[in-house]
Structures
1.
Amino acid sequence: MKALIKGACFLFAVLILPVSVFAQSVVTGKVIDQKGESVIGATIKVKGKKNVAVTDVAGAFRLSLSIGDTVLCTSVGFQAREVIYKSAADLTIKLTDDSKALGEVLVVGYKTQAKQEITGSVASVKMDKITETQSAESFESLLQGRIAGVNIQLNSGEPGASPAIIIRGLAAVSRDDASAISEPLYVVDGIPIISKTSSEFAITSTNVLADLNPSDIEDVVVLKDASAAAIYGSRAANGVILITTKKGKTGKPQINLNIRTGVNFVPQLLDVAGGNKEREQVTRLYDLYAPYGTFMPAMYTDVTNPFYNNSSDWQGYLYNTSITQDYNSSIRGAGDFGQYSISLGYMDNQGILFNTGFKRYSTMASTTFNALNKKLIINNTLAVSRTDQTRNPGTLETNYSSLLPLPNDPQVQGAEIYLPGQNSSVNDRVRFSTDATLNLIKNLSYKASLSLEYLRLMQDSFSSSRRTLRGDNKSGVGENRNLLFQNTLTYAPTFGGHKVSLLVGQSAERLESKTTTVNNVASAPTLSETVNWPIGNSIGSSNYTANSLMSFFSRFDYSYKEKYLVGASIRTDGSSKFGTANRWGVFPSVSAGWNFSKESIFENVDWLSSGKIRGSYGLSGTTWDNDYLALGIMNGGSLDQYNSLIEIAYGGVSGFTPTWYDGFRNENLTWVKTSMSNIGLDVSFFNNKVEFIFDAYEKLTKGLLLTTALPTTSGYNEVYRNAANVLNRGLEFTVNTNLNLGRGLTWSTGLNFAYNKNRVISLPDGNADIIKTSTSGQDFGSIVRVGAPLNGFFFYQSQGIYQTESQIPVDPKTGARLIGLQNKTLAVGDRNFRDQNGDYFINVSDRVYSGDPNPKWTGGFTNDFNYKGFGLNVVSTFVIGRDIVNTALLNRLRLAKDFAGATSLPNFDNYSIWEKSGDNAKYPTLNPWADASQIVNYDSEYVEDGSYFKIKAATLSYNFTKKIIPRLPFDRMRVYCTMDNVVTFQKYSGPDAELVTVDGFDNSGGYPMRRMLLFGVSIGL
Amino acid sequence: MNDMKFWKLIPVMLLVVLSGCKDSLTIDLDNRTVAEGYYDSAQKIEQAVIGGYVDLRRALLANYGWLMYGEARTGDLTVAVSYQQAVASQQLMGADRYVKQLTDWGYFYDVIKDANDVLDIVNNANSDVLNTSQRNLYKGEALALKSAAYFYLARIWGSVPSAEKNNFGQLLTNQEAVTLAATFATEAKGLLPWMLINDDGIESAALTAIRFNKTAITSLLVHEQLWIGNAQNAYDALSTTFTAATTDSLSTFGLSLGVDRRTEIPQTPLSESAVSMPLARLNAIYPSGDSRRTSMFNILTDQNKATLKNSNTDGLELLPVREVNLLFAEAAWRSNRLDEAKTYLVRAAAGATEDYTSLTEATFADALLMERRRMLVGTGQRVFDLIRFGKVSTYIPAFTEGDVQQGAAYWPLSAGSLTGNSLSQNSYWSSKN
């Protein structure tokens, strides 16, 4: 209807234009906001004419107008307003705030919906303010602490690393993958994108989402519950993240420029004894424990050694302050023709560790054309980006003994500390999508969209040895193509108080991945990134995989007077990953809401601005990476460690039997299905000054894929089955306040916190415990057990340290003393592990569930202060109730016989280490010559409280406007200074409680998180 | 506004929607192989047969299994691996992962599964894919492999579950399992040729030596019949098969050695660095003057051991031709033909210092057992012979006769075998738990 009126007005305007030219006169006017203050820089346009004016410092404008003209007034931060010039008088246009709470429209699955009509659990974050003053490689890290129930953990400080995002609790089980996480689905402007590559096809390890420039994002919507997400069917069970990119806004073209430079400071590193202290400690260990005839290495005793008094700071040498540069520019605008938006971005983030860094080049162009008088709307988006991650070609040790000279010492030049060469990981992504919406008849529209995404991952590494001159080349390319075609038909009539919206749609998607890698080892390296092919020992391999997904979906929403809301959706997905028998999955959802504040009894309740109760239930799904798992692939040979194909040979013939499968063919494999129920309450008080959101949910994930044992007589060992169930239950609270403290000082806060309890409900093989073990047989120390949270620590229970001989238990039957791990004869000063099964022998069967790495409480707290042009913004995040393991310390305390000079030592004074009877110590004797070390991997003493409160970012900014400086050459200019990773409050004794793997083991040795001080200026022309 | 006829768009939309409906959910597995439809030529079916041999090789060679189940367990041979001592001292329930792997019968059942798959494939193959001789050969080989696998299973673990379609999972007694194996061997014996033919259509000795042939299947069948006490049948099978006319066609059967992607499969299983006999043991078994001391062994006095002279580096002999006379001797003796038995024993035991012509009913068994020990060292049969002759407790002092009655001679079952098939250990091994 509105469109028709607009169309009619347009036509009318066109028709009378020649007449009215003669009737127009210059009018002066003023633009004011709700408080009556003048709005500076607002654009006033006459519809259908070229007349444009911009308000001055006083909010005044002059414009040629004729009676009957429609005037369109726009200004950033305000809702656009159309006014018809009725009488020949001065025009005053009052603009209302584009306020967040009121009338906000959010993108939800395949449509947009007014926030007050949403019945699911949906949260949104406006990104433009955040990205204006914060610089990040990927948008996920900027969402940290902003949405209740969305737990984002940056578990490495390496430039280009992928954060872990878990929405409403972990729901992924595996036997041999410590890092299995339940990943959400990412949808950009309505198109699901490639957000990761399966491990088999991951040529680079750079975060695939880092090629999406955060500055291009307008807002991010997270669909948390099943009713909101179920429309995305088989991929939605772990939540859906909808990203809307910035588009042009009506008014004069907006040209934005954001230039910033950051200084990355090295944070707290590992504690190192250093120089003399190291020598003292080594001497002491030798004095105490060295067997007769064992002497300290000469580097500690030979005073003529030129490095005898050395105290090299290896960490200081290899970690250095570095610079981050981030430049973004854009030009955007809109009009009757449609809109345009073009942006450019460049980021260069040098890592604090030697030879590491991340660069991004990105550009995005988005255009919208309105044709046939807005009957046909065509959108085109082209996004091209490249990320380039630099790493060390070999492993880079940062904890050499501090007695060893640094490589910059002229006496040791050429020492093999790091390998010369380079390792670059380049990801290129081209995303092109086009869609056409046809408004067929009133309230009925059809939309077809086509998207082609091409992601190329390239890794080239070259390293050579200074000593042997042997060079290694490796070159790999991975290509991922995603072709998507979707059609939707929407019918959304309104009659009386009834508002109906019905959508039916179909989509087809095909994802292909291909990799090619070549390796080359040459004794005489040619300094080149290319593998010289075909030298005899160059070896290459390639791989290909594909899957397709076909979907039909529908959603229905109904509201009556915006008071009573009902919604339902259904999607059916068919995937090529499954056998024909079990190919299709159906994912329905229902929801309802009641805007109780609109009831008449609340009519006179002033303090209640809005109130809504909502409830929902739905089913959604997930699949897995391996495209061919259900198909029973025969596997006749495999690649050995040198990547040559081993053909199974028997008498000159190669064997190839049906049993050599990737496991057994299971035609019954099907979707992992997650049912989620959610109840929620949204209320806001005092004219939206205080907003409160509460959600409670239960998420039951059924049929997670696991291998299960087959009878050994079957000829197979194992088969993949939909075998494990996991339950997550939780509560989410969000409190937002928006206070005007008077005299121009405003203070808004956003506090959110979420509680999640995770529990394994059932496991295969009669609920047998799964002790996670890598394919190479390495025990991860994690257990998956029914009734307990996922990935608990499976450790030996420490009871302190044996102080006297009499404390070591003796078997009354045999008189034999308890035997320690690895058949160690226990002695005073050893770790006292509890013999759980009472067999007087400490072994694997004495391990118990010793801690839960899943955070119980997560959340964030943001504070915004604004005073005149000044702004102060502080973002904090917290995790409460999580156990983590200080593996970094454990590894450093575990000394082997040849420990002296091998690595740096921590300052033992900082740790309570047992030396003699009576020492009330936490850590057992560090005797490097003991027949078995008592510093063992799975000692419950190293489990620590992983709770933390982190002030993630603090920004101080000043906004120059024409109101303050009338002669400002720009529309506006903001200067700002942001500190990122400000301070962490934690109980954890390691460097940073956030740098922890998903399963709870310290990861700080990997790459510490820098502290960044960012200075920037954002200019609007 | 009227210049656009919307109905014109309807066929376009229909086309668009329908094009999405075509079967896009089928992925061409260009670079993967699935079993369905793969075996469409004689060569490919032969690959499946070969897969069975590879699995048998895995079953016997992984962790030196064939010796661990045989001479390494009795201490006649020493394998230079960490778990040799545990096996030789009959500590078979320990935590050592290699010993644990040895208690797992998975690879033997892989052989049976492969053989059953081959039988299905052969039965379903059209005549244009397989000719009659190919069909007989592959079927015979599959049956022979299956027979061998069941026979090994029964001899190593005692009573074992069936993996046949009609009674899958049912626990077979030792007698039942070997009887089943003998049925397969009998059928295979009628199908297998004396000599196998290579791709050029020429009889190939090399090929015959590593795949089941008439000699090997007859020896296997005789072994099985002797095990279940059908000495007369064994004697008949031998005397009707091995006649003067067939002497030139005899062939040893062994496993071909080659590359396997399972890296724990040794490619030179009898290499001097791995397998040896302690010198004292050599002196006890082969008295001085026995020509086999030097014909079969390199005596390394300085290292106090002897290593096997390995004439065949391409294969590992399992059923050597030299055993035929020993089998004749045993079948004849057990079917009450002592004199004939002595003749065969004397014929077999060339190089022995003893005079076997004076053996009596009472002394024949020990002599035959000793000759089997001497002549078949390295083929992994020692423990099976001890069980068949009832001499386990004599030669494995760790066991009393009571232990043997309780099942000590058999191996304990692995944890996977127990839980996956709802079985329990025999009474000897459950008492050791």
2.
Amino acid sequence: MELVDKVLRGDEGSAARLISMIEEGRDEGYEAISLLFPYTGKAHVIGVTGAPGAGKSTIVDKLAISFGRQGGKVGIIAVDPTSAKGSGAFLGDRLRMRNAEKLEGVFIRSMAHRGFPGGIAKATLGAAYVLEGLGKDVILIESVGSGQTEIQISMICDSVVTVLTPDYGDEIQLMKAGLLEIGDIVVMNKTDRPGAVEAAKDIEFYLMSHKKQHWQIPVLTVEAIQGKGVEDLIAALKLHRTYTVENSQGSSKKKENIKRLVLAIFKEEFWGETLKKIQDKAMFDDIFQQLQNSTIDPYKAVRMVMDLALPTE
Amino acid sequence: MAVARYIKDEKDQILDVILESGIHVKSSYSPKDLDAMGFSYEKDVADPGEYPYTRGIHALGYRSRAWTTRQYTGFGTPQETNERFKLMISHGQTGLNVAFDLPTQMGYDSDDSMSEGEVGRVGMAVDTLRDFEIAFKDIRLDKIGSGLTINAVASIMLAMYQAVAEKYGYDPKVISATPQNDILKEMVGRGAWIFPVEPAVKLIGDTIEYSMNVLPRTNPVSVCGYHIRESGATPAQEIACAILIANAYIDNVLARGHDVDAFVGRFSFNLNVFGNMWEQVAKFRAARKLWARNLKEKYNVKKPQNLFLRGLFGGGGYGLTKAQPENNIMRGAYYALVAALSGAQTTALCSYDEAYTIPTPHSALLSLRTLQLLMDEMGLRDTVDPLAGSYFIETLTKEMEQKIEEEMDKINKFGGIIEGVAKGYIQRLVARQAFEVEKGLESGELKKVGVNIYKEGESMEVELHEYNWESAEKQIESLHAVKRERSEKDVTRTLKELEAATRDGKNVMPYLVACCKAYASVGEMTGIFREIFGEFNEPSLF
Amino acid sequence: MENKKNMKVLIAKPGLDGHDRGAKVVAQALKEAGMEVVYSGLHRTIDQIVNIAVQEDVNVIGLSIMTGAHIPITQKLFQKIKEKGIGDKIVFVGGVIPSRDVPKLKELGVVGVFPGGTPLAETIQFLQSISKKG
């Protein structure tokens, strides 16, 4: 396939086009991914997640610059939320990565999550493959950052950095359990703020007492805007990378993750396809008419839609 | 609330009026409204010239002195600017207001690749002292003050103004410059920023500190609620931001150990006049009061004259329309009336053709005449603060005061104005409101004559001055000629000293003056700042 | 969630001018109309703008120009677009644009010109009609 060859030869325009094809769910896009797949798996895919305003973009910007200086070829995928009403999205992360953007060879792609759950878009994994095909060996993925636990990002990344700030006192308490589930490294950003060191210690203590695996999640303090602590973060990422490759627990986690992601995408695709098939049927409208007239209850309606979608033979 | 609303019944009778700032207007007012607000003449208003200066900062108002008129001038080459200066002065204009081209505003020399196509386009190109020598030739710098519409590199332009004055034999103590020098508002509204917030504010602190002793008649900073309003802020937000921004500059200078009374009296404001006229009058009256109270209570300012909100009330750019542009002449007249009723010390109007072209000498003159005839024909000099005592205006002024305080609280809760600008909180707020206004105009909820009502009639064609590649070339040649003639030794030395001073965190002003006198270029001086300070990280929209 | 093409637009501010009220209003309007919007931020060079357009694979590039430099800027843009082989991008221009310059801009390859004061609905409709064609 010509497009794939071009991507492998480093053509940015073709890579960008291919990512769009995956976003649009086009068959040729998926075929291209199949062809690219054998060339992937070596890049270090790093997820950066955390609440809005935690400083994710700034950290991605700084990481990209540091990796770049060390000779890494960096690709960035920044995921922003699609509006709850409609399909519009404002893809604004890129603007906060202007320093990285200026670096030769850094490829930044923004994408709207288009309703996909878990902090990423359905096409994010595909985009990571494309960027690796393009020759990137470090791929940074910035999640939507809803403030919720963004499980899906851990399914496509080798290492996940969770960014917290002391501003989110109560939320941090709620997020602790989630950290164990998705985070490999915790970053306490904005350490110039009061309470930052205490908050970091508190999380560290929690993580130590809830250790579930061989990898002990480190808690790093960073002042991203000043660039303080970024080198430590890179060192921790490299250490984690080694762990995932060399430790059997680390690599089996990755295999388990990819299975979960396939099921997640399957769920979304299946839902989309199924809805397409049944929504034009007369019966479909009829069910909702009955529901509105209160002649059936909501559970009954669900069972009827199920029958419509998956008729028993 | 960012959009003014009129709630009407089906017979077009107005049931409620909600001003942009969110204040409800009643069908009529009486002494009861004042009582309900706990209104006290002495405390809330007082006589003109008395604290809290709601009615004005001078007891005699325009009786002692009419306002200063300061139409925006300056375009193309320094030579053309000089001619326009002289023309406006011969027409009776009492102050200059210099516009600079974008490369100068952004600290690039005319021969920089970033400047291509922009040299002399929206204002005067300034590369070296040579350009100021030409622009200010034969202007009495001891008699006439100059507004310098420059921000990111205002420190450089102020230094250059001192250098040109000294060159022409004036004592720096007698010259009066008013550089705009308000970088925080650039970050919110006009976009001519270069450096990050912290060093940018530090440079402003340098100009204020330096002016105290060396340029005592200079107003080193002109805080511009104006552009924040143009970007979508409500009148209440305009004043809230202006006061908080001024405070940020005060704090910077106070941290250097100076007495607030030694500098704060030279602060001035640049505020906007478009919008509902009652709301604007109330806004200006409330602003004077809040500024005085802010200085007295928060900063313990002692000298009464340092509590004055002095400023330019004018402009009104966003209020003007491209459609039916002659209407802008009438709008301008009403804006001028608002400024006069509000006791503006200095004023200027956007010219009626500004929505579609760079103002012609004719339109600039019309604006000047509009201002002059208010003072000399219509009796606006007769008595001070003529609207005082109106049940409506006094109630509205007090309500406006409360709204402004609410807006200040909101910004402070977010972490203050510096944080709010650095993180983009203010930018997002005004951008969202600008969008609301646009939607209001499209839905017809907001009315604009010639735009969405009474649309019959001609719309004017946008006319732009042909870009003069030739004079741009000439400007570049002149820069190169200066560079050939100047002493490289002096330039290198003064620039080196500037660099060291900048790195050491010293006040850069004396070093800039030395650079200017050695004919170092704006780009060379800014280059040093760029290298050391870096650039502002523009916050994202959402 | 369904698979579909969604219009992706880059709103860009080329050059030194910092007046971004209009650009930001349009960006918000396009988002509300269901498009995915990338905003370039201020003081961008044409090289940077085209680079963003390539990496983001936008369908449309909208330039906001207020200084009167719209002709040389647009010329430069199309030159760069050609170099990068992204001639399929639709380009529209907004800002302070005299109508006598509209034919010149269209000649250069600009598809839509929306001077300040154009109703938002008109710009949106224009982009939507293009996406249907595409």
